[in-house]
Amino acid sequence: MRTLVTLACTECKRRNYTTKKNKQTHPDRMELKKYCKWCRHHTVHRETR
User: Fold this and answer.
1) CA–CA separation, 46 vs 33, rounded Å?
2) Taking the alpha carbons of 13, 19, 20, 25 in that order, is the dihedral positive or negative?
């Protein structure tokens, strides 16, 4: 079952992106390198609860 998750920047802590993931195959938190428009460069974004 795919669920909607929110990604937050690790530097400024703003919630910038939403994406979907399969919680059965990937139960741990997702980490992606995405562009943050407040930091103005690519940073690691982590899944928030």
Assistant:
1) 9
2) negative
Displacement of CA 27 from its chain's centroid (Å) = 14
Question: Do 3 and 26 meet the contact criterion of CB atoms below 8 Å apart?
Answer: no
Q: How far is the C-alpha of 11 from the C-alpha of 38, rounded, in Å?
A: 10
Alpha-carbon span 35 to 49, nearest angstrom: 20
Q: How far is CA 35 from the centre of its chain?
A: 11
The model's pLDDT over 9-49, given as tens digits with 9 standing for 90+, comes to 999 999 999 999 999 999 999 999 999 999 999 999 999 98
Nearest CA among 3, 21, 14, 2 for reference residue 45 = 14
